[in-house]
Design goal:
170 residues, Four Helix Bundle (Hemerythrin (Met), subunit A), binds fe (ii) ion, mainly alpha
Length: 170
């Protein structure tokens, strides 16, 4: 298992370096949208899964993906786009929605899968994320494309992918 994880990490790094070396479009908005899709699919899978083991493993993937995603948005992406009255309001709402998402994630992490509230909490988490993603994709991201130029979007994308590889955000 550990060997398998090492191989996966190695392959992920190799793929990232390949894309970076080819100058493939690393637009941060494209990458954040891909994360949104991935988490939505994992949440669906989590609600359908039947064994405790698969629930635990899917939830830990969601937990990790959301923490990385939210951390980057809060530290890098949101500060860079809160430049107008409209984006400032959207960003402030996003911070509050992230807080709600984090509270639910922490609750679910602590609770037993057998708890009768488990499914209700995961369902509400899914609903809040749906709402949050809709606001980001339909309102904030189009504004961000006006505020940031192509190079800034690409630099941010590269920075995010590197931070996913375990390198610190600066
Ligand atoms: Fe997001
Ligand atoms: Fe967000």
């Amino acid at each position: 298992m550990i060997f398998f994880e090492k191989v996966v990490t190695f392959l992920k790094k190799a793929i990232l370096n390949f894309y970076l070396s080819k100058g493939v479009d690393m637009n941060i908005i494209t990458i954040l949208k891909a994360d949104h899709k991935e988490v939505a699919a994992l949440l669906k899978k989590l609600l359908k899964s039947e064994t405790a083991q698969s629930k635990e493993s899917i939830f830990s993937k969601i937990y990790e993906a959301l923490n990385l995603h939210a951390r980057f948005e809060e530290k890098v992406f949101y500060p860079a786009v809160r430049k107008t009255a409209k984006t400032k309001d959207l960003v402030l709402e996003s911070y509050v929605e992230h807080d709600m998402i984090k509270i639910l994630l922490a609750d679910i992490r602590k609770m037993s899968i057998k708890d009768e509230l488990w499914k209700a909490k995961v369902t509400v988490l899914q609903e809040i994320i749906k709402h949050h993603v809709k606001e980001e994709e339909q309102e904030l991201f189009p504004q961000a494309k006006r505020i940031l130029d192509k190079d800034q979007l690409k630099d941010m994308g590269e920075k995010y992918l590197r931070s996913k590889e375990g390198k610190d955000l600066k």
